[in-house]
Amino acid sequence: MKVIKTVSLFGLMAMTVGIVYAFIVGDFATEGNQILSMPWGIVSLVDLYVGFILFSAWIIYREKIWWHTVLWVFFMMTLGFWTACLYVFIAVQTSDGSWSHLLHGRHAKHMN
Q1: Taking the C-alpha atoms of 93, 5, 15 and 108 in order, what is their torsion angle to the nearest 10 degrees?
Q2: Which of 8, 71, 74, 106 could form a disulfide with 88 if both were Cys (CB 3.0 to 4.6 A apart)?
Q3: pTM, entire model
Q4: How far is the C-alpha of 96 from the C-alpha of 61, rounded, in Å?
């Protein structure tokens, strides 16, 4: 579990640096149009959002409180895997070393 925690924290830091850099140096509208003008750019975005949707399905499965779920999914769709890294880090922190709780969240008690 320590490896997952470390990887998620490293991912969170790397994504934070990347997002801040892109907002400071990049031009979202111009660069977004360039990406959408290329077939592999479109494929990359489809691939990315399929990943976002799959990860969001896990969030929906795990979470107890509906509005927490809505917020997590909203941020997943807007901030991407930055949100996933934060979510995994928090999930590891609150799992008390239980793999069942980490993976299943609110359903963990029914798994034993």
Answers
A1: -60
A2: 8
A3: 0.91
A4: 19
Instruction: Provide the token pair at 22.
Output: 């892109």
∠ CA 55-59-61, nearest 5°, is: 115
Burial (Cβ within 10 Å: 0-12, 13-18, ≥19) of residue 104: middle
SS3 95: coil
User: Structure tokens of 89?
Assistant: 């880090």
% residues pLDDT > 70 (the chain): 97
The helix/strand/coil state of 97 is: coil
Residue owning tokens 């922190």: 93
Chain segment 13-30, per-residue pLDDT in tens: 999 999 999 999 999 999
Answer whether 81's CB lies under 8 Å from 11's CB. yes
Amino acid (one-letter) located at 91: A
In the prediction, which pLDDT does 80 show? 96
Distances (CA, A) of 11 to 36, 82, 84: 26, 7, 9
From the list 38, 62, 74, the residue with the least C-alpha distance to 111 is: 62
